[in-house]
Structure formats: structure tokens, C-alpha cells
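I'll show a sample.
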Amino acid sequence: MPKMLFALIALLLFASPVPAATVGDDGLHKQDWFAITFRDIAEDIEAAREEGKRLALVFEQRGCIYCRKMHEEILSDPEVREFIEAHFKVVQYNMFGDEEVTDLDGDVLTEKTAARKWGYVFTPTIVFLPEEAAEGASVAEAAVATMPGAFGKWTFLNMFRWVSEKGYETEEHFQKYHARIIEELRREGRLDAE
């Protein structure tokens, strides 16, 4: 018994903790792996592509309990975080912010006017952009998928996987993809509460 107790204590002491999200001056939760850019969407798409990744924009707001939950419960999960970090360049937007944004169609906006123009009203909202910038289209028109609101781990992760696998170009709608993956997880005994 003492050996088992010692092993448990050692595991707790030396386990590498997942870094917690911090809260910035703007009141938004921050991940150290979120990209800081000049918010020129076409440039960000190209930079992501050069890194072998896709661009995802995440709209949040100060005091959003669902954003906090996303950061503390979903993005802190190593499986979720590692997949997103490996496949996506994520840029955070403040739904009511004043930072300058250049849309794909060339319009120069603030974060808040961009959110209104693109029709994003929920936080968090994650917008997935194509691999190459669509000239003349706005972000909302060019987006290959949008995830409005907060979801559990598997819905959240499966949406990133579906976009990464270009499911939007296939006949398998996201809901069908998600149901198939959930069934596979059940068979493997890996499904936790969703």
C-alpha cells in the first residue's frame, strides 16, 4: 500500500498540468497558443496555409459564461487542444472590440462592426475559413462552417475534425459525421458525457 500511495503522490506532483487560460485586459479568456495577427483575414488565411493549418476565428465577449466554459473545460482538454493547435491557426475576436479588421472583400472594420456585418450574435462563435482567400467575398460568405454557441467536448472537437477533413466538400453533413464518430467512440468505450 505505501508504494501505491507514493506512486500516486509522485504522479500528482510531477504530472504536467494543462496551462489555465488567463483573462486579458479586454476581459476575454486567452490561450497562449491563440495567434496574434494584424487581423487582415486574407493574410491570416495565407499565413495559416503556409503553416499547414486552417484559419479559425473565435468571437467572444467580456463576461461570457459560455466562453469561460469553453476555455476552462473544452480547450483545457489535452485531446482537444492538441488537435486544434496542430491543425488550426486560431485568432480571437472581441464581439464588442474596436481593433481594426480587414475583411476578405477589402472592407476595413472594427471587430464589433465586423461581427454585425457577418451576422455573428452569439459568443462563443467559431468561424472556419477556406484554405485560400475568396476574393470579393466577406468572411460570412467565404466561411466553410460556423459553430455558434458552446458545445460539449465531442461536438466541439468533431466540428474541428470535420472541417480539417473537408467534410463540407462531401455528402456527409456534419450531424451525420458527428453521429458516426459518437457511435465509434461508444464502441471503443471512450465516450464520456456530452
Observations:
- The two ends are 36 Å apart (CA to CA).
- The chain is about 40% helix and 15% strand.
